[in-house]
Design a protein that fits this description.
- The chain is an alpha+beta fold.
- It contains three helices and ten strands, in the order ββαβββββββααβ.
- The strands form two sheets. A five-stranded mixed beta sheet has the order 1-5-10-9-6, with no helix packed on it. Strands 3-4-2-7-8 form a five-stranded antiparallel beta sheet.
- It is elongated and about 60 Å long.
Length: about 180
C-alpha cells in the first residue's frame, strides 16, 4: 500500500467538535453530530464530526489518502469505519467557533472510505480538568494560557482513506 497524499493541521475543538467536510457541503447535520457523542467520530457521507472531551486545547487532525486504506494503528484508543464524498476534491477541517483550520486537496474528487482513529483523547481530557483546578487568583489566566499552549500530550485524530469511486451525480435542474 502506498501513501498518495497527507495533510495535517491543528484545530481548536470549540464546543468539543472539529468537523471535516467537502468544500461544498458546509451545512451541519445535528443527528450526525449527536452520533459522534457516542461513537467519537460520526459521518453522514459528506461531513465527519470528531468529538473531543475538551473544548480549548488544539488537537491535531491528519488526513492521509492511500491506494488501499491500511488497518488502524494498533496503539490508538479507538477507531471507526468512515466514508466521505467530495465532489470538489477539497476537504475542509473546520473549527465550529473559529472557522476553517485548513483544507486538503484530494488526489481527485470522489468517494473515499477507510477509518478514523484517535489517540490521547482521554489523557488530554484529564489534563484539561487538572489545568482548571488551579486556584482562581491573578495568575489563573496566565496559568491556563501556558498550560494549554504546552500540553504534555497531543490529542490526535487520523483519517486513513482510499478512493473507491466517482462522486454521485446530482441533477440540480430537476429541483
Amino acid at each position: 500500500m502506498a501513501l498518495l497524499a497527507e495533510y495535517r493541521c491543528k484545530a481548536t475543538p470549540a464546543r468539543r467538535v472539529v468537523e471535516v467536510y467537502d468544500a461544498d457541503a458546509y451545512l451541519s447535520d445535528d443527528d450526525t453530530m449527536a452520533a459522534a457523542r457516542t461513537q467519537v467520530v460520526a459521518g453522514n457521507g459528506y461531513h465527519l464530526y470528531l468529538l473531543s472531551l475538551q473544548p480549548d486545547i488544539d488537537v491535531e487532525v491528519a488526513i492521509r489518502v492511500w491506494d488501499v486504506a491500511p488497518a488502524p494503528p494498533a496503539e490508538v484508543e479507538g477507531h471507526v469505519p468512515v466514508t466521505i464524498e467530495s465532489e470538489t476534491g477539497v476537504l475542509v477541517v473546520n473549527q465550529l467557533e473559529y472557522g476553517p483550520a485548513g483544507e486538503m486537496t484530494l488526489p481527485r474528487p470522489g468517494v473515499y472510505e477507510g477509518h478514523a482513529w484517535w489517540e490521547n483523547r482521554q489523557a488530554m481530557a484529564d489534563y484539561y480538568v487538572t489545568t482548571l483546578n488551579h486556584p482562581a487568583d491573578d495568575t489563573f489566566e496566565d496559568h491556563l494560557t501556558q498550560a494549554w499552549n504546552n500540553p504534555p500530550v497531543t490529542e490526535r485524530y487520523g483519517l486513513d482513506l482510499a478512493y473507491i469511486r466517482e462522486p454521485e451525480v446530482v441533477d440540480d435542474e430537476g429541483l
